[in-house]
Backbone:
């Protein structure tokens, strides 16, 4: 069930339109199913307090899954508005994951003046400093940024990210267009595939596909990831 934690983060990725056109505040809520069985809910939001922005995501298992594998995973990112980079320049990223008996609590503090980032494990007190590329961000911020870049089917974009001890370039491929029935009605959706590394937020992934509306809203309406048996699907349930 570990792969379920990927849904919250990946649902923040949608296909871009134009820089700076993002909606703030925004909140999206999803129903999660495993081979058709409800297993929990996910939500993601972005809010503003002056020039400070907050991105948060939550995955929580339902009563059935919690009976043998309780999950409560939170991701929080703090940013500062930047005119030429939506949603902003990331200052700190923190992930607090509980999956069954396993607990993780890690953070990354970004210093864009020196192009460095400090990783910290809050449970073991392990620390590491890495050199990062200009414009680097955590995966949540990078995905929000990707929603507002001009790309189309057949394109591949690279996003400099760091959500573990080492930075890397996250490649995102836009595969094709499909028609999809959603709570928004029947929509034309772009099918997107992020080539994530099996570490940090994406530890345990087995292949991920994302559907986003091909309009000015660029709403991620569906996500599917393979697990050892079957697959987990996230479907948009509400939006604010």
Residues:
């Amino acid at each position: 069930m570990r792969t379920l934690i990927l849904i919250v983060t990946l649902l923040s990725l949608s296909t871009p339109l134009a820089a700076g056109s993002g909606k703030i505040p925004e909140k999206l809520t999803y129903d999660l199913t495993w081979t058709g069985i409800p297993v929990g809910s996910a939500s993601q939001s972005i809010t503003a307090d002056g020039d400070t922005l907050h991105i948060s995501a939550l995955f929580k298992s339902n009563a059935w899954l919690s009976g043998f594998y309780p999950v409560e995973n939170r991701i929080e990112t703090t940013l500062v508005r930047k005119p030429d980079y939506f949603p902003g320049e990331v200052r700190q990223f923190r992930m607090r994951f509980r999956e069954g008996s396993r607990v993780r609590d890690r953070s990354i503090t970004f210093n864009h003046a020196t192009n460095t980032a400090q990783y910290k494990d809050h449970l073991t007190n392990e620390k590491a400093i890495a050199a990062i590329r200009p414009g680097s961000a955590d995966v949540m911020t990078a995905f929000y940024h990707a929603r507002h870049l001009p790309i189309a089917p057949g394109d591949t974009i690279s996003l400099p990210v760091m959500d573990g001890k080492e930075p890397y370039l996250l490649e995102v491929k836009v595969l094709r267009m499909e028609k999809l029935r959603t709570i928004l009605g029947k929509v034309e959706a772009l099918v997107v595939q992020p080539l994530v590394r099996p570490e940090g937020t994406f530890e345990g992934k087995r292949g991920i596909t994302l559907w986003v509306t091909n309009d000015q809203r660029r709403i991620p309406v569906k996500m599917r990831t393979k697990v050892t048996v079957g697959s987990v699907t996230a479907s948009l349930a509400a939006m604010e």
User: Anything to note?
Assistant: Confidence is low (pLDDT under 50) at residues 1-10, 12-20.
